[in-house]
Design brief:
CATH topology of the largest domain: Rossmann fold
Strand content: 5-15%
Oligomer: single chain
Bound molecules: nicotinamide-adenine-dinucleotide
Largest sheet: 6 strands, parallel
CATH architecture of the largest domain: 3-Layer(aba) Sandwich
Shape: elongated
CATH superfamily of the largest domain: TPP-binding domain
CATH class of the largest domain: Alpha Beta
Structural class: alpha/beta
Length: about 260
């Protein structure tokens, strides 16, 4: 009997265009907590989902800016893990690999992935809360920010409004060009690997559905069971940093055998 991993190796092996759709779970093994992880310390008293809104920023900009500086410091201290590295490696096998990530960290880029679409923005690019423009150059604190510290946001060099993180908050629309490129990649891929995402945050969670409807196979990698709605969906149970490198090395072996 053929195992799921063998089927997945065959599908990816035969593919030319791959979309890798990632969520917070892929960065968990780099030490960056997912949304559903219980947070310790002061943030345990602040639901992140309540800090990630424009109204939270209006109410207490220093608390929200401090929260993002803390998250940015966490990312700066982290390294890409074996899953990020394996995805960059997959792009060296001759397939067109597009990474569509919901993450606001830069671990895919630091692992060597080149074509990375950030659906929810980035911790690295603040913008003005008032005029919405992004400053062309801005020095951002890199020193370790203590958990729970309030930090007044810097001011916009153009209009003196408060700068806010350049990430998509709850209730906000996704950056139009990132969304358009992600939909196009999903419609044109042969296979989509959905790694470390709960699939609960929309519209991002539509990306695997769009790929499936366009005829692609969708492979979920998650330690927690995923419900499958189509015969073109497969599920690899396990941690990303274990499953993804294993999958990519099996694909490389299959490629060599095929040539
Ligand atoms: P989520 O927290 O809703 O779900 C995380 C998923 O990852 C869960 O299904 C969980 O079972 C799975 N997971 C946990 N550990 C894993 C591992 N080692 N390997 C594989 N899977 C693992 O996150 P989401 O689906 O990305 O959506 C929520 C939002 O969280 C996104 O909008 C994103 O912007 C934001 N977020 C981003 C980061 C980051 O940038 N690293 C961190 C936290 C939250």
């Amino acid at each position: 009997m053929t195992s799921t991993i063998e089927v997945v190796v065959k599908i990816v092996g035969n593919s030319k265009r791959v979309v890798v759709f990632t969520g917070a779970g892929i960065s968990a093994e780099s030490g960056i907590p997912t949304f559903r992880d219980p947070l310790n310390g002061i943030w345990a008293r602040h639901d992140p989902r309540k800090l990630e809104t424009a109204s939270a920023f209006r109410e207490d900009a220093a608390l929200v800016w401090g929260w993002y500086l803390w998250r940015r410091a966490q990312v700066a201290q982290s390294l890409p893990n074996a899953a990020h590295l394996a995805i960059a490696q997959l792009a060296k096998t001759g397939r067109v690999v597009t990474v569509v990530t919901q993450n606001i960290d830069d671990l895919h880029e630091r692992a060597g992935s080149v074509d990375v679409i950030h659906l929810h923005g980035s911790l690295e690019q603040p913008k003005c809360f008032a005029c919405h423009r992004a400053p062309t150059s801005l020095y951002l604190e890199t020193k370790i920010v203590c958990e729970g510290v309030r930090v007044e946001p810097p001011r916009c060099p153009r209009c003196n409004g408060k700068l806010r993180p350049g990430v998509v908050w709850f209730g906000e629309t996704l950056p139009a060009s990132a969304w358009k490129r992600a939909v196009l990649a999903a419609k044109n891929c042969d296979v989509l690997l959905s790694i470390g995402t709960s699939g609960e945050v929309f519209p991002a969670a539509e990306i695997p559905i769009i790929a499936l409807k366009a005829g692609a196979s969708v492979v979920h990698v998650n330690p927690i069971g995923v419900s499958l709605s189509s015969s073109h969906e497969l599920y690899l149970a396990g941690r990303a940093a274990e499953c993804v490198p294993n999958l990519v090395s099996l694909i490389e072996i299959a490629d060599k055998t095929a040539h």
